[in-house]
Design goal:
single chain, alpha+beta, Peroxidase, domain 1, 2 domains, four-stranded mixed β-sheet, 8 helices, 4 strands, ion transport, ATP synthesis
């Protein structure tokens, strides 16, 4: 859904800028998470789409999340309602989280290995990545026995593939 992502980015940026300006990153994150969860529900989304007017849809969502949204969050909902953009709220939330990680200087890393990794190895990897990129590291793991050995690191958009499977594939293509 690349189109939803394209639509979501400016809204996420606006929400993020407001959150930074008002020193309310946690509050905005919580509000957007609640909105995203509500709009992931097909029944709620259908109800909002079939509302008699954009303001009726916004009012319904505001009533549903009464007490969760502050004044800025309520205005954000009204803008989304006027533009019929409730269906992109999950993507807005995801983009907000990316902007927050950038702001907080947190690097997301995915480590894929054929076997579980020991705590000392994980700690050493986090320390090296933190030193290299000058930020804290959020490391998640995946086990994939098909890579045979070695590991694959995904650091943002960059992939470092040091798996045995890829090495054998590369060797095979070189020999042919």
């Amino acid at each position: 859904m690349a189109e939803n992502l394209t639509i979501a980015r400016p809204y996420a940026k606006a929400a993020f800028d407001s959150a930074v300006e008002h020193n309310a990153l946690d509050q905005w994150q919580n509000m957007l998470q609640a909105l995203a969860l509500a709009c992931k529900d097909d029944g709620i989304l259908l109800f909002l789409k079939n509302a008699s007017s954009p303001s009726a849809a916004s009012d319904s969502l505001l009533k549903l999340l009464d007490g969760i949204l502050d004044e800025y969050g309520q205005n954000f909902v009204r803008v989304l309602g006027e533009n019929a953009r409730f269906e992109v709220l999950p993507e807005i939330y995801d983009e907000f989280l990316k902007l927050r990680k950038e702001h907080d200087k947190v690097l997301s890393v995915v480590l894929t290995s054929a076997r579980p990794i020991g705590e000392s190895e994980v700690s050493a990897l986090k320390d090296k990545l933190s030193a290299k990129y000058g930020c804290s590291v959020s490391l998640s793991f995946q086990i994939d026995p098909s890579i045979v050995g070695g590991a694959i690191l995904q650091i943002g958009d960059k992939v470092i593939d040091a798996s045995v499977k890829t090495s054998i594939k590369n060797l095979s293509s070189t020999l042919i």
